[in-house]
Write a structure and sequence with these properties.
mainly beta; 5-stranded antiparallel β-sheet; 1 helix; 33 strands; 5% helix; globular
Length: 431
């Protein structure tokens, strides 16, 4: 064999190895999967990671996030309970240089293939309020049965001409609800999007949604021997009104009043709430308050006498010592572990870190016990269903921080180097 031929063969081997490392492989029996939308590139990426070592590798698929009329910016992603489909919100201003009101938005649907790749299967544009005003989707939740997709729509605006001057008119936020059909097809339920009755000042702007479970986790969750309720309840965070608004969910997906209520009930939070999470046993609810740099905790009244509740109407009572302080500032995202023992909070500025909090099982109060550094400007968090892995997207760093999670203690262990993504990752989901 000539030296020249040997050199070329060696180079080919190195290229092949590099290709395998870059593109990776995925086996459901030994690997997990992280799915990340990119705000800068307007694509959805997937990464496999070994369930033993945590070693991550990129899957070679990057489907575009559709518009219309062109690619929009993602703000949230959620997987259906089976892990077969992902839904991504996408919106953008049509003419940002001349019009800061008129936007276009959609919910894009993607299939998670058996090899870990992601492919687009279509899109669903949310209905418009009064047939003319587009809603702006910013957060997503799916019920544990995989029947409904709930969307938090922030406040938006329209332009009108007053004395030959374009003048913005505020449009209140709402909650859109879609039924999920075959091949993850979305159909908006009757009455959606749901708005608060009457006029409020300031108009509501919803930035987060969470739904109670109709299926409880196994051990070591405190509720693993209990029968879950058949009815669902939705909690939506209103960033403008500094409140959590509570709804019942009908068998057809429509939002309504809590049992026995004569009007829609709301519960005060801190300043500028940013995200909401319900624990998997339907006992507690937590809200990050971006303006007041703390977390509001609530007990969910699902049983008379529990937590001091006088009715089993799924209303909320403040947890003892709420609100709870957090390290750093600007909390933007949070997640409860799959067994309801720990709460993890993402702080965006100052420390740019992830804080760990133990949940008191009898009251819902929080005790902070650890912090871990993230990348620059963390924005979202996801925990794998087995409770063993946690991920945080870092928009400015272009990375995803990966942590091993010990379910019994809540201890986080950084898993090597952060996962490098395309420009400005925004949102994360894991299976």
């Amino acid at each position: 064999m000539s030296k020249r031929f040997g050199w070329l063969l060696g180079l080919g081997v190195l290229v092949a190895i590099a290709f395998l490392v870059a593109c990776g492989s995925y086996s459901p029996s030994s690997d997990g999967l992280v799915i990340v939308p990119s705000l800068g590139s307007d694509v959805v990426q997937s990464f496999s990671f070994n369930l033993s070592s945590g070693h991550a590798s990129r899957i070679n698929s990057n489907p575009a996030i559709p518009g219309p009329p062109d690619q929009g910016g993602p703000s949230a992603i959620v997987l259906d309970p089976s892990g077969q489909f992902a839904f991504v919100t996408s919106s953008h201003l049509l003419n940002p240089s001349t019009d800061q009101c008129t936007s276009s938005s959609t919910i894009a649907t993607f299939k998670i293939n058996s090899d870990g790749s992601v492919s687009s299967v279509g899109q669903q544009t949310p209905n418009k309020i009064n047939t003319t005003i587009p809603v702006v989707p910013v957060a997503l939740a799916i019920d544990s049965a995989g029947k409904y997709l709930f969307v938090a729509d922030s406040a938006t605006c329209t332009l009108s001409i007053v004395n030959n001057v374009p003048t913005p008119n505020v449009v209140p936020g709402a909650i859109s609800v879609f039924s999920i059909g075959a091949n993850a097809a979305l159909t908006e339920v009757a009455g959606s999007p749901f708005t608060l009755p009457g006029s409020t000042v300031p108009p509501p702007s919803f930035v987060g949604v969470a739904v109670t479970r109709t299926a409880f986790p196994g051990p070591p969750a405190a509720c693993f021997t209990q029968a879950p309720p058949s009815n669902e309840y939705l909690y939506a965070v209103d960033n403008a009104g500094n409140q959590v608004v509570a709804f019942s969910v009908s068998s057809g997906g429509a939002l309504g009043l809590l049992p026995g209520a004569t009007g829609i009930l709301s519960f005060p939070t801190g300043t500028r709430p940013s995200a909401v999470a319900v624990d998997p046993c339907n006992r507690f609810l937590y809200v990050t308050n971006n303006g007041s740099n703390n977390v509001s905790g609530f007990a969910i009244c699902s049983k008379i006498g529990q937590f001091g509740c006088v009715a089993d109407d799924f209303s909320l009572l403040p947890a003892p010592n709420s609100p709870f302080s957090i390290p750093g500032s600007d909390p933007v995202a949070l997640a409860v572990d799959p067994f309801g023992h720990f709460l993890f909070v993402v702080g965006q500025t100052t420390a740019q870190q992830l804080s760990s909090h133990k949940i008191a099982q009898a009251t819902g109060s929080l005790t902070q016990f650890d912090t871990k550094a993230t990348g620059q400007q963390p924005v979202s968090i996801a925990i794998r269903g087995d409770g063993a892995w946690l991920f945080v997207t870092n928009t400015l760093s272009g990375t995803v921080s990966q942590f091993g999670l010990t379910p019994a203690s809540g201890v986080l262990t950084p898993a090597g180097e952060a996962i490098t993504t395309d420009n400005f990752p925004y949102g994360v989901a894991v299976k």
